[in-house]
Design goal:
Layout: H1 18-37, E1 41-42, E2 48-50, H2 51-54, H3 59-63, E3 68-69, H4 80-91, E4 102-104, H5 109-119, E5 127-136, E6 148-157, H6 163-179, E7 183-189, H7 190-199, H8 206-213, H9 216-219, H10 221-230, H11 235-245, H12 251-261, H13 266-281, E8 286-288, E9 302-308, E10 317-321, E11 336-342, H14 343-353, E12 366-368, H15 373-388, E13 393-395, H16 402-411, E14 416-419, H17 422-427, E15 429-434, E16 439-444
Parallel strand pairs: 1-5, 7-8, 12-13, 12-14
Antiparallel strand pairs: 2-4, 3-4, 5-6, 6-11, 7-9, 9-10, 10-11, 14-15, 15-16
Length: about 450
């Protein structure tokens, strides 16, 4: 007795039909064009990395979301005992090299840092790269959050100049302007958060504070205070954080209040000065958000987050400065700063706001009807002339009734059909129908390739 397997997808992953792929490619190409406009070069890295490359780089919360890959050959009888013991450790939440040594990449930044560490002797600094590839996170799937998704990153390494932050903010502005998405670019500085940790008793409080306040817009202030208490902060420390979170006003007002709060704190004042530097170039669309923490441990300076202003959606971009990321791989003192675009969320925003141009959906423009062997051979030659001029064209795959071929064109959204029957063949002419305007015209074989489709 046979059973038929019902096809399904792993949770948090998706298939993309042709229309969706065209829209996604429109986003990719728009962002790629802006990256190239700003002098960035393309780079790609493997889907998997050594587990030790990724672990410990994303904070406690992030490490839990890394997809680990089982080692090959664990079914070999010689390895069964090792496998059994490794699985027992895994059930206890421990890693074991006998079970897994590799993992799917969690983001593009750590693999990029690994690449720079391995190739720094051959690179010309500052090195500006962009990267567009999928990443994987074992997160709970929900609207705008998937387990497999694309990131589009741009990073500059080998320069401490804050002009790089200004340039990256400019990339965000230009890319979202071209995509017609109204956004707010939020910025903060990890030095300011470090100063807050010092006010609350020491640098060891930094991770507890940033992880908690990064959730402010999701869980509210009361729950943030409760989480801070659970993380061991006392009432005085929580009150200091509450005072910090209570700072409001425009960018200038917020920074002035911060100067008062962190008077005498070198880290805090330096963080404020770095924000002022970025804002003095062009603060249009930039908002100082003191709740912004970006929970990744490797950030050391300015941090970014982008939100669509007219759609309920999580961040559609983010990044920041990481002055010693390559130091994690034994190559210290290579500063860097980068940003990322969340393509999947950008797609959802553009769909909701109906922002994709109509021409994005255009695939084949011209369909030649198949009306006989001699007719189709001549149609094929004309089709090749159109293709040589960059006009996407098809010849219907077999002889069929007019109705069937018209339905094919309509279903695929093909605007023009070219009819070449025995009469047209004898007169060296074609009949072309515009399915959008419902008009019809006759053209000679010589005229057809010169038409403006």
């Amino acid at each position: 007795m046979s059973s038929t397997l019902k096809p399904s997808l792993p949770q948090g992953t998706r298939d993309f039909d042709p229309a969706t792929v065209r829209k996604r490619n429109y986003i990719f190409q728009t962002i790629r064009t802006v990256f190239e406009l700003y002098g960035f070069q393309p780079l790609e890295t493997p889907a998997m990395e050594q587990l030790e490359t990724l672990m410990g780089k994303y904070g406690e919360e992030g490490d839990k979301l890394i997809f680990k890959i089982l080692n090959n050959g664990l079914g070999d009888p010689k390895n069964r005992e090792k496998s059994r013991k490794a699985f027992e450790k895994a059930l206890e939440g421990k890693n074991d090299k006998d079970l897994t040594e590799r993992a799917l990449r969690y983001d593009l930044t750590i693999p990029f840092a690994r690449y720079v560490a391995m190739n720094h002797g051959q690179l010309s600094f500052p090195f500006k790269r962009y990267q567009m590839q999928p990443v994987w996170r074992a997160d709970r799937p929900q609207k705008g959050r998937y387990r497999e998704f694309y990131q589009c990153d741009a990073d500059v390494v080998g320069s401490q100049s804050l002009i790089n932050e200004v340039e990256l903010a400019g990339i965000y502005k230009e890319a979202f302007r071209r995509l017609a998405i109204p956004v707010e670019i939020r910025i903060n500085n990890r030095k300011i958060l470090a100063a807050l940790a010092e006010v609350c008793g020491g640098a060891d409080k930094m991770t507890d504070i940033t992880v908690a306040i990064d959730k402010l817009d999701k869980i509210g202030q009361d729950k943030v205070k409760a989480e801070l208490a659970e993380r061991g902060l006392d009432g005085r420390q929580i009150a200091a954080i509450e005072q910090y979170l209570g700072i409001v006003g425009d960018n200038h007002t917020k920074l002035e209040q911060l100067k008062t709060l962190f008077a005498g704190n070198d880290a805090g004042l330096k963080g404020i000065a770095e924000l002022e530097y970025v804002l003095q170039y062009d603060d249009n669309g930039l908002v100082v958000d003191l709740t912004l923490a970006r929970g990744l441990n490797y950030y050391t300076g300015t941090i970014f987050e982008v939100k669509a202003t007219t759609v309920q959606m999580g961040s559609i971009g983010g990044g920041g400065r990481y002055d010693d990321l390559t130091g994690l791989f034994g190559v210290p003192n290579i500063p860097g700063v980068g940003i990322s675009f969340g393509v999947d969320r950008i797609y959802d925003v553009m769909e909701e706001l109906k922002l994709f141009p109509e021409e994005v959906q255009t695939g084949t423009k011209v369909l030649f009807f198949n009306l006989g062997e001699a007719e189709s051979r001549t149609a094929f030659g004309l089709m090749q002339q159109l293709r040589a001029k960059g006009i996407p064209s098809e010849l219907y795959h077999e002889q069929a009734k007019f109705d069937k071929q018209f339905k094919y064109a309509e279903k695929k959204g093909i605007r023009y059909v070219v009819i070449l029957g025995s009469e047209e063949l004898a007169n060296r002419k074609v009949t072309m129908k515009d399915l959008e305007s419902r008009s019809q015209s006759a053209y000679s074989f010589e005229e057809l390739p010169g038409l403006n489709f």
